[in-house]
Amino acid sequence: MQKESLLRRCPIQGVIDVISKKWALLIVAVVGASGRLRYNDIMREVRGISPKTLADTLKQLEKAGIVRREAFNEIPPRVEYYLTEGGLKLRDAAVPLLQWAVDRSNEKDCVILKAALKTSRKQQA
Fold first, then answer.
1. pLDDT in tens, 37-64
2. Residue ranges per domain, the chain?
């Protein structure tokens, strides 16, 4: 019983719940590589994701404190997404995993992973 209690309090469980989602790490990597991205820019970079899945995943990442959403009071409205400090650390930790996936894959020209693995990050505002 004590072992089960420790597992429930283990912080890795919460992290795994967030990053185990199909698109989460790619979104984190792509946003982190670009600095700030608008929703449609993320859609363009993460090809194959549905609009609903992207919206849901961004909400989950925001709730987990990995992504921030900033809305600007402009006409037309503008919303940008960027990584929090914790999100940047997660991206840095995920890059070797994504590189490993590229290295062992037959799909060496995967556009999504190339975008995610860009090394230059724009400064966060």
1. 999 999 998 888 999 999 999 999 999 9
2. 10-116
Q: How many helices (H) and strands (E) does the chain have?
A: 7, 3
CA distance 28 to 54: 12
* Residues 80 and 72 sit within 8 Å (Cβ to Cβ): yes
Q: What is the DSSP string of 70-103?
A: EEE--SS-EEEEEE-HHHHHHHHHHHHHHHHHHH
Residues sharing a CB contact under 8 Å with residue 46, sequence separation 6 or more, in sequence order: 23, 26, 27, 30, 54, 112, 115
Fold (CATH) for 10-116:
Arc Repressor Mutant, subunit A (1.10.10)
